[in-house]
Amino acid sequence: MRVLFVDDEPKVLSGLRSLLFDLDTAYEIDSSFAVGGHEALEQLEAGCFDVIVTDMRMPGMSGEALLAEVRRRWPAMVRLVLSGHTESAIAYRVLPMVHDFLAKPASEEDLRTALDSAQALIAGHHAGFALGELDELPVRPDLLVRCQRVIDGGGGADALGAEIESDVVASAAMLHIANAAFFGFRTPATTPAEATVRLGQDAVLAVIAQLCAQQLSPGFDAALEQASRHAVEVAARAHAHDPASSLLFTGALLHDIGRLVLLARRSEDQRRWFADGEAADDELLARERARFGIDHATLGAWLLERWRFDPALVSLVAHHHEPDRLDPELARLARIIDLVQREDTTAQATEGSEP
Fold first, then answer.
1. Taking the CA atoms of the chain, what radius of gyration do you get in angstroms?
2. pTM of the prediction?
3. CB 181, CB 83: distance < 8 Å
4. How far, in Å, CA of 125 to CA of 153, rounded?
């Protein structure tokens, strides 16, 4: 794995060299170092890199500008940010361009974790899905307005979290950034409301603004909106079965996020497949693997694992169609999600048959 580290301070790059020297990984790391954004672009143009790790505040060319250029010219490259806590406002702006954050100065443990995640993105047999399409997953365009109204009306984190929970992609993104090593939390946030408390209202608005802004050009896709709305409805109904379980709610909200990734590819074959409204039967995952080379449960769990979500949530998403593969408590939650999903499918079919 070829990694380019970028910082305007030679001492920081020297410290990263020392960390890498002692770093024990199962894969080989071929590291290069650039002092500043312009030197980084020169090296990127001259060589072939898999990962870039860059500081944010740099003279001449900022890390934000560098990441935008990397995303445009080398979209398959894994993009990591090395940033101090005082640069959090910048970090929120670059969220749509970044796969992970590292606190500055980076610890050996956090550096290993980030590089392990990057290696998984590169080496995973379904990485082509994730790296190409995650940036295209849309949030509802009116979400920013609704969140601003909550704040203007004096609403707290719970009210703001409730608005975010109405959008699957925004919920996943908020949990992703709240669980990043950049913020120093050692236990993962499990609900959008909890992520909102951690980040604060200003940060939440900044993140939502960036997520909404990137949708203005292509517009919001009706098929993706329908799939997202369905997941929100399933989560609300699952929550009624066990209001005390945050894991059930978040699992139900994100259980089909792999489908959103597949839909974001805008393949007519995939759109017809999902538009047919196939039932969640025992053969569904096998048929998806035969059709697409991967099933939506595996893809969704792989994505959440890369984003450092709670391992229990990753397992629930991975096996929500296969509860026998889970421990008893997770199996119980998976069966609730499946029950609600089937009830919802039956209700939709009944409504469609009414004159």
1. 21
2. 0.68
3. no
4. 47
- Given pLDDT bands bounded at 50, 70 and 90, which one contains residue 41? very high
pLDDT in tens, 256-269: 888 877 776 655 65
Q: What is the pLDDT of residues 158-211, one digit of tens each?
A: 888 888 888 888 888 888 777 776 666 667 788 888 888 888 877 788 778 767
Delimit the domains of the chain by residue range. 2-123, 143-213, 222-353
| Tens-digit pLDDT profile for residues 307-322 | 778 889 999 999 998 8
Look at 78-92, 212-226, 296-310 and tell me which has the smallest mean pLDDT. Answer: 212-226
Backbone angles phi, psi at 188, to 5 degrees: -75, 145
* Largest pairwise CA distance in the chain: 73
Chain center to CA of 235: 18
Angstrom distance (rounded) from CA 225 to CA 166: 11
CATH for 2-123 is: 3.40.50.2300
**73 alpha carbon, distance to own chain's centre:** 22
Domain spanning 222-353: CATH superfamily: Hypothetical protein af1432 (1.10.3210.10)
CA 231, distance to chain mean position in Å, is 16
Contact 301, 294 (CB under 8 A): no
CA distances to 144, 145, 200, 268 from 205, rounded to whole Å, are 7, 10, 9, 34
Residue 327 pairs in a beta bridge with none
**Angle formed by the axes of helices 246-254 and 222-241, to 10°?**
160
